[in-house]
Amino acid sequence: MQIIVTALVVGGISAVLAAVLTIADALVNNYGEVSITINDSKSHKVKGGSTLLSTLAGEKIFIPSACGGKGSCGLCKVKVKTDVGPILPTELPYLSPKEKKDNVRLSCQIKVKGDMSIEIPEELFNIREYVATVSSIEDVTHDIKEVFFSIQDEISFRAGQYVQLVVPAYGDTREETMRAYSMSSQPSVKNGVELLIRLVPNGIVTTYVHKLLNVGDRIKILGPFGDFFLRDTDSDIIFIAGGSGMAPIKSILLDMMEKGVERKAYYFFGARSKSDLFYLEEMKEIESKMPNFHFIPALSDPQQEDNWQGEIGLITDVVDRYLSEQGDDVAREGYLCGSPGMINACIDVLTKHKITEEKIYYDKFG
Questions:
Q1: How far apart are CA 95 and CA 97, in angstroms?
Q2: Which of 13, 77, 237, 343 has the fewest CB within 10 Å, making it most exposed?
């Protein structure tokens, strides 16, 4: 009992100190107006004190960030040419030795406290903010919703890319929150985007979508982002996904079908039980129209009532069995979408079968 009380006291003191420091920083450190120079050519006068990520967003310059600025995805990298202090411990896991040497930083972790000079890829200036209207919401499983957001202006993207969905403040959240979701619609659909959103326990954005979002609501979308798209080669394709990771693979497959791409493609989709499977009819239809495409769903924990006759086991084990049977003397590429843990496990299996990491593509959303 004494241990619990001590822990609560220490935790309470820490929370109070953190709040005091935050308030003190806001009151004492008035950074005023500062200048951010981008690529030695564009200068923006901004109010100091916020993170570089949110400050740039205020100027309609959107840096990729799958986690919405939590520091857990490592995507919001920019080259900072001004001294902004040492690299923070929260940045270290996401920076390579070369990036550290080149002064690459996570824009969500550094604050704008004075004049800064940064470098970002020119294509980021093409990322736009859209105000979308929710056209439809469908349950595709017990915890995944398919949502179509209509956009008045046309949107252009590559199959496999993602957007950031911005939900307004609600409940205990005091500000807008954004999260990244891959688009499941194909690029030929210009008047909107379809997303697959799985309910994450205590997830701010997913809870909003599943509990509060209605048809007709208007909501902000930023994008497109990401380097996850089909490479133009003749190699066989190994797709691996689970859950809402279906989204970018579906987009790529529909795009391949429309363009008449005839490469051999094998799609391994992992689920726990039959209640977690979806789009089976859609995959059958794609198989009927693309003779070189094969969809292989697998259940890791099939229930008796599932009467499942397909593959059983972890999806990595199913892929391992397939590749072992087919042999490794085939040029292949891997396209993965899922949790960081699932992606790491898939990379281990694919590299074991001579698919080099340079030919394995994914967006590892944190």
A1: 7
A2: 13
